Amino acid sequence: MQNFRSYFKAFVNLHGSSSGKPVAAGEFWDIVAITAADEKQELAYKQQLSEKLKKKELPLGVQYHVFVDPAGAKIGNGGSTLCALRCLEKLYGDKWKSFTILLIHSGGYSQRLPNASALGKIFTALPFGNPIYQMLELKLAMYIDFPSHMKPGILITCADDIELYSVGECEFIRFDKPGFTALAHPSSLTVGTTHGVFVLEPFNYLEYKDLEYRCCHRFLHKPSIEQMHHFNAVCRPGNFSHQDMAGGDTTPLKLESEYVYTDSLFYMDHKTAKKLLAFYEKIGTLNCEIDAYGDFLQALGPGATVEYTRNTSNVTKEEAELTDIRQRIFHLLKGTSLNVVVLNKSKFYHIGTTEEYLFHFTSDSSLKSELGLQSIAFSIFSTTPKCSGNTSCIIQSILDSGCSVATGSVVEYSRLGPNVSVGENCIVSGCSVITEAVLPADSFVCSLSLKMNGYLKYSTMAFGVQDNLKRNVKTLSDIKLLQFFGVCFLSCLNIWNLKVTEELFSGNKTCLSLWNARIFPACSSLSDSVTTSLKMLNAVQNKSAFSLNKYKLLSIEEMLIYKDVEDMITYREQIFLEITLNRKQFDLEAS
Q1: 85 alpha carbon, distance to own chain's centre
Q2: 378 within 8 A of 129, measured Cβ to Cβ
Q3: In degrees, to the nearest 5, what angle opens at C-alpha 129 toward C-alphas 410 and 445?
Q4: Which of 108, 211, 385, 519 has its CA at 20 to 30 Å from residue 40's CA atom?
Q5: Residue 243's pLDDT is what?
Q6: d(CA 154, CA 81)
Q7: What is the DSSP letter of 108?
Q8: Maximal CA-CA distance, the chain
Q9: What GO annotations for molecular function exist for this entry (predicted)?
Q10: What residues are paired with 554 via a beta bridge?
């Protein structure tokens, strides 16, 4: 989209000067808040924010906060929103009624993209910038125009999506109406089944515009295609003036396509936020998962009905009080307006799974050209990637010239020696591989620093990029239904000489999965950790025995409990300094 480059330039100018002057009032957000699932995640986010501010990588004069969910039951991003409102009230009292606030939901454990599990989805590295930009900087750049065209209130967004759009030169997206205001993107009906869909009130423009302000009759959350038709959410081709309407995670829509308008981020004014806060204070403790989209937005618009509160088909865990809380939210918000900013030339990208991550960073020419993504981003690697089709993607890493990385693979924050071969469609994160090693195609390999009993240790999770870490079974007899690298998990345990006992799993013993299986060795050096985990991976692929009996074994769940954020940041910083020094020497030699 044509606007993005200028927005990113404006963002860089906002914090790029060495003077460190704070931004002027009204020029940027008053508050940027990130949600965290637990205290360990909260600490990790605060450490990374502190590092960024110390290096002046973020605009100064802004209040940056991390708001952690209360301990106990999962409360979903809707619950996190309510919790954040309470935190704002405690910190600022009545003052926040005049603030523009950006709230970024980043409280999940990223089980579908585990290289973001330890340090957070909002700190996912992107393949461009010097230093490397992360999702946080991208969000701040994408939304740079919003605060100056917004009445006091809160803009709510997720950490793993990207919204790009194009509007007229003198047009701006405005968030200045009472109630809720949401962005809407034209999408295929198939995409609509996994998103929120707006049923818009009729309008009488002669032709569609890039930017339209519409009223929403009702909001559908992950509807079926039949429901989209039934509730008149489906738009049919008219005199649309664009060759392609939108794209992103789907093929651009052509003129002859039926389409729907799907959601991304939304805004609520301060009055509405206070109404939700009063509701939260009244109920006290929340013991069920509330969806900020499904449970807030479905209550809005003149066509909203209470039926959705009893529909639990999109709920991951059905708690007893869920229906009651949903109904109370419905009656609280009923009659509140849902304004929609229709962006007819926009693209929505989601980078929350290994599949999406690999596609957008290596194969997707659309996102590459929009953001200026690079195949080799702030790295040392003399091999030139192929120019057409799929390429590999190297992010802040040091790779020996004798190393090979096949197409479709991403390597980030790693050191790879001369005899290392990375197969196709792999993700390699935070690793150090000095000795000869082969990473099979479709491998996921990610190393974490750990602090265990006061000692620094390392553990490397290794599995297939298509493995489902969230899939769980309730009994030990059913673990044969789990798959590791496409192989029956029970067969893998035999290869590793591990017995099937309750001790094999951490945490909840009635929710057994690859996520909480104790199969990854803890080692005293980073390179040993990677080498050992690669041996267990190759043993499964080659069906050859490799005993894990002599190792202290951890689950991914336990790795996140023991993670040493400071050491992981230090490791990344060492790579950064080495690349910086190498570039300076190269410039000196060139001159």
Answers
A1: 22
A2: yes
A3: 20
A4: 519
A5: 41
A6: 10
A7: S
A8: 73
A9: nucleotide binding; nucleotidyltransferase activity
A10: 520
Q: Would the pLDDT of 8 be above 50?
A: yes
pLDDT in tens, 112-156: 999 999 999 999 999 999 899 999 999 999 999 999 999 999 999
**Quick one: which of 240, 184, 239 has its CA closest to 212?**
184
- Rounded to whole angstroms, how far apart are CA atoms 514 and 518? 8
Going by C-beta distance under 8 Å and a sequence separation of 6 or more, which residues neighbour residue 540? 484, 485, 487, 492, 495
Phi, psi of 152 (to 5 degrees): -50, 135
User: The tokens of 527 are what?
Assistant: 């390179």
The interaxial angle of helices 76-92 and 270-283, nearest 10 deg, is 100
Q: Is 71 exposed, middle or buried (0-12, 13-18, 19+ CB in 10 A)?
A: exposed
Contact 381, 583 (CB under 8 A): no
At 284, list the tokens. 């006290």
Asked if 335 and 236 touch (Cβ cutoff 8 Å), the reply is no
Is the CB of residue 162 less than 8 Å from the CB of residue 351? yes
Residue 198's pLDDT is 98
Local confidence band at 204 (pLDDT 50, 70, 90 cut-offs): confident
Burial of 317 (0-12, 13-18, 19+ CB in 10 A): exposed
User: 586: buried, middle or exposed (CB in 10 Å: 19+, 13-18, 0-12)?
Assistant: exposed
Instruction: List, for residues 512-568, the tens digit of each pLDDT value.
Output: 999 999 999 999 999 999 999 999 999 999 999 999 999 999 999 999 999 999 999
3-state secondary structure of 169: coil
CA-nearest of 333, 193, 322 to 269 is 333
Give the count of alpha carbons within 13 A of 332, CB side only.
Answer: 21
Q: How far, in Å, CA of 433 to CA of 530, rounded? A: 7
Do the bridges between strand 393-395 and strand 410-412 make them parallel or antiparallel, or are there none, so unpaired? parallel
Q: Give the dihedral sign, CA 449/451/452/457.
A: positive
Cα–Cα distance for residue pair 537/493, rounded to 1 Å: 12
What are the backbone dihedrals phi and psi of residue 501, each rounded to the nearest 5 degrees, phi first? -135, 170
Asked if 105 and 157 touch (Cβ cutoff 8 Å), the reply is yes
What percentage of the chain exceeds 70 in pLDDT?
A: 91
User: SS3 of 519, please?
Assistant: coil
pLDDT for position 563: 97
How confident is the model over 85-124, as pLDDT tens digits?
Answer: 999 999 999 999 999 999 999 999 999 999 999 999 999 9
Question: In the numeric block, which tokens belong to residue 271?
Answer: 């009055």
Average pLDDT, integer, range 504-512: 95
- Which helix (H) or strand (E) segment is 544 a member of? none
pTM score over 0.70 = yes
Average pLDDT taken over every residue of the chain: 92
